[in-house]
Amino acid sequence: MGEEGRAPCPVSFWQRLNALFFYTLSCLGAFAFLAAATTYFHEAEPRVSLQLERIMLRRIQSAGHDQAILSLAIDADLRSVFNWNVKQLFVYVTAEYETQANVLNQVVVWDSVISEPEQAHIKSDLVVNKYSLTDQGFGLRDNEVKLVLNWNTVPATGLLTLSHAFDQIHTFQVPATYA
Amino acid sequence: MAHQVLNLAMIVCSALMIWKGLMVPGDILFLHMGHAPFRAGDIVVADREIPIVHRILKVHEKVSGEVDVLTKGDNNAVDDRGLCAPVCRRPELDQQAARYLPYIGMVTIIMNDYPLVKYALVGIMGLFVLTTRE
Predict the structure, then answer these.
(1) Is the domain defined by A47-173 classed in CATH 2.60.40?
(2) Where are the bilayer-spanning segments (chain B) (predicted)?
(3) Theoretical Cys-Cys bridge with A127: which of A46, A72, A161, A172, CB 3.0 to 4.6 Å?
(4) CB burial readout A37-60, b (16+ within 10 A) else e
């Protein structure tokens, strides 16, 4: 490669490019690891309050199942969950109950993607369900249902973690009569 | 010598990664075969021709231990009732997502969309292997 009068370079252009490329790759990997590692012990202090405001139970004879329309009051302050490695939160409310046919039924009734810390304080007395509470059969009437607020932390890079506000479970009784 | 071996291994690894392809839309997900039962909110993978990575919306666990699961994509307007039988059964689902690395898979997508880029890159890597002999 070297011109006349100059000593030939012992390292070729391609070797330099190769080294540079893999050095960049290693750095990227290291920084990704650091981003995940520095936030691993981040402790959040979320404040959650969840309540049922209104419920309407219907019997859908043709489909063969019970369906309940819910209206919730949510006051959840998840701002402290955010840190520099959190890309977004996926917040969802599950309704859990037992029936004669199933030992466990879990139905997500509402969810929301939160991308900004400022939006992470969810406060509304009129959250109508996004997905109706639908049973597989006719097992909702006069049944006890538990509402739980959960969130999935989606990092910029690293572990995907699920959190549940199990200390703030709201239990309610579905009406004994159809609307 | 050790450095050279490592370098070679890295080149081969990245060439393999690019060749085999890891995940679909740009991000890399690390999966694990979960032993924990499926619960609402879990992200699961249905291993179709193009793997479907969706979140569990409904779980109905029978006395016998059989589980009915309904999934939905976060960004989709409707659930996956149209993608499988009325309610997906557990065997349809294989793995749960555990870790997340964004965008790196974009390389794979570009490779798959433009095969020429793939050949060029693998060719260049082959050249590296040949030229890194000191």
Answers:
(1) yes
(2) 6-30
(3) A72
(4) eebeeeeeebebebebeebebeee
